[in-house]
Amino acid sequence: MNLLRLSWKNLTFKPLSTLLSIVLFALGVGLVALLFLLQKQVEDNFEKNLAGIDLVIGAKGSPLQLILSSMYHLDAPTGNISIAEIKPFLNPKHPLIETSIPLSLGDSYRTFRIVGTTPSILDFYGVSLASGKAWAQNFEVVIGNTVAQKLGLTLGSTFSSSHGFLEDDNLGHEHTAFKVVGILAGSGTVLDQLILTTNQSYWLTHEHDAASEEAAPEEDNADHADHDHEDHADHDHDHASPSVTVPSLLEEPGEKEITALLVKFKGRNFQALNMQRSINENTDLQAATPAIEINRLYSLMDTGEKALRILAFVIIFVSGLSIFISLFASLKERQYELALLRVMGGTRVTLFTLIILEGLLLALLGCVFGLLLSHGGMQLFAGALEKAYGYTFSGWTFLPQEWYLVGGSLLLGLVAAVLPAIKASRTDISETLLKG
Amino acid sequence: MLSTHNVSFSFDSAGGTSLKFPDIACQTGEHWLLLGQSGSGKTTLLHLLAGLRTPQSGEIKVNDTVLNQLSGAKLDQFRGREIGVIFQQSHFLRALTVGENLALARQLVGLPADSNKIKALLEQLNIGHKLNALPSELSVGEQQRVAIARALVNDPTVILADEPTSALDDKNTEQVVALLKAQAKAANATLLVVTHDNRLKNIFDQQIEL
Predict the structure, then answer these.
(1) pTM score, two decimals?
(2) Which is more confidently placed, B107 or A268?
(3) A177, A327, B54, B166: which sits with the fewest CB atoms below 10 Å from its CB?
(4) Which one of A9, A344, A433 has the shortest CB-CB distance to B108?
(5) DSSP per residue over A33-100, as a string?
């Protein structure tokens, strides 16, 4: 029966009060750890997808929105831009630009976004094909690893896209038939969640819609479906027939539109930095720097996070207080026990140590349960977060900060127990026994 | 051996009114009764003898050690090792079983728990079956026996008992005193029972009156 076991027995002898202290402590620690985990994983996800992109060019609007929609595929695009406007930036001979990737956005298939772009985007993100080949023809698609898993698509699968990012049958581009020609290896980047095709496929899809709306305005909804199905084969045929290499956007007519352009500079020199300002001031385009906008986003999130963190630390403080109060209150109840320990040969140090151990045990248990709570909670949230943001989250990553939490908890347990421990060690044995 | 010389004690640290106690000299193995009315300072003397309080003046000797010259941890350890104390009301560590309470008493002074010894001791006191019971599950009589077991478990050379029979009926009183005397005799320990219980007068040969 060493002191550690005795302190454990004392705690389990009063399970409710012990439970209250532990639960409070676990809540505080759990909330702090959960915030750490969330912040770390959000930042990791953002940083992984920066992919060395120096500038994003798109339609005028919110720069943050432009970055979120074209790099993280989170928000709606700001609008479209014409080929004529961006032709200079597509030119491979541009003195400042190393590569530029055109993006066409706005459609999706069962909530996964379809991106019209060129295969060089794969090099941008450093992602390789797990099977099949890169898209070369219109209506050929390469799908991200997650898309393949979640939707059960394989090489050769076909599907129709729908307008917008929601799963809504009424917005279907019923005449389109995308065909999976490649599946990407999992990379942890945003490409996992995307369906990639040519920019031109976007134009064909939307022109097609416009055409069929004109062609069948008086048709009622009932036989609309039939019509679609009958039509389908024909149109497939149509798409398949111009089976020539898709031309570069430079050769496309200037009035055609895309959504955004991802730009990588040759070097981050003064001229390159000036380019953003000159685009914003002199053209109808907008240029935004991802790193700046993401930092802006962090600072926006920071306010909320700060509030939550303060709340968490208040809870931790209160739980420290609850340990202090429960230990202090227990001294009165067991003053006779403490005196008895002295009669049996225990010293003042024995009593001091006993109470300190009780405080440390409470804090340690609270901390351990808190960490379990945060990781379990994170794992539980991960599914919902993945659904909402399309990024992978996991409860089973551990951070070095968690050791600080353990250390901090033990320190708090110690501090909370010091006063009761001193009081216990000062128990006047004779007085106490006389009262008994 | 337990002896006092010119012991006085004051509750008020300024040294106002003080209690003076008669000298005591109990030889090893003797059984003494210390009689006194309520308020005569019986319990105070017992606390002094157990080293739970420090006398204002005088000397208390247990075996060859002057108790009031020890201090702090040394006094605590000496008390735990050499003096077994039985209080008027039995108190235990509530969270521990009977066996664990006894084991703790041994371990606090650095002795091995020795579960065989604890079992044997409880058997002698007819409460062997209560080894794994919590103190709250015991009757008053059983609690008193466990308290005796705890006082004896370290083979002390001096056993002090404060009104051990005040809560007991005649039959139990006889039994408890017989047990105390038998155990003290078996351990060759000095036994001093402090009481105002006149039922004990006829059982003890050596008596001091306060």
Answers:
(1) 0.78
(2) B107
(3) B166
(4) A344
(5) HHHHHHHHHHHHHHHHTTTT--EEEEESS-HHHHHIIIII--S-----EEHHHHHHHH-TT-SSEEEE
